[in-house]
Amino acid sequence: MGVTALLCFGLAAGFQGNEAKVSEKAAQEVSSLRRQIKRTVVQTETLPELKDANRGLVTAQSSAKEVAKLQNDYRYLSAHAAQAGGVVDDAVALPIRRNLTPYFAPSADQSALTPWYLLASDKDMPQAVGIPMGFDSGFEWSAQQPYEINTDSTIQITWLAVETRPGKGQTPAVLAWARASYNVTRETFDHFKTGTTATGESRRLQVKTP
Description:
By secondary structure, the chain is α+β, with helices and mostly antiparallel strands. The chain has 6 helices and 4 strands, in the order αααααββββα.
């Protein structure tokens, strides 16, 4: 018998047949407790099974890491975008965009498929065909570890863009952030939002839509 069932049993045993002897205040307290138990039962029954919840967290984290990796691939387009006046060539970005698409629901904001953040200083990195092995970007996107799953089977995921070359003795600054809701059932992200910190905005390479 679960904790909820024991509570219900105790209430029934303690007050059955003695309702008339219970003061009005006590009766109200009992009624309030019963409502709380009912809400607990509903919330417990709507939570996914523990095994499924753990699997959902692992899947969400894995997908979030892949999205971060793809967003990091956009960094290599910084020099090209700077030379084009901040415009990211759609044809050049298409492979990354195509790989990002399956991770996001059709209803998600389409900005999720574009570069979330580009660093102005990265424009000075040498260009090369594809991804240059020696490219040393000044920042990197990483997915934060999720720890809980909501009753609607969604998981909130946060990504952070952190500088990779902080000054001596300084803590790496967070330049930008992104958040999305991962649907465990559909295995896609939705409700996407992104933004920059004050430091990140001052170092940002402004990107225009072609």
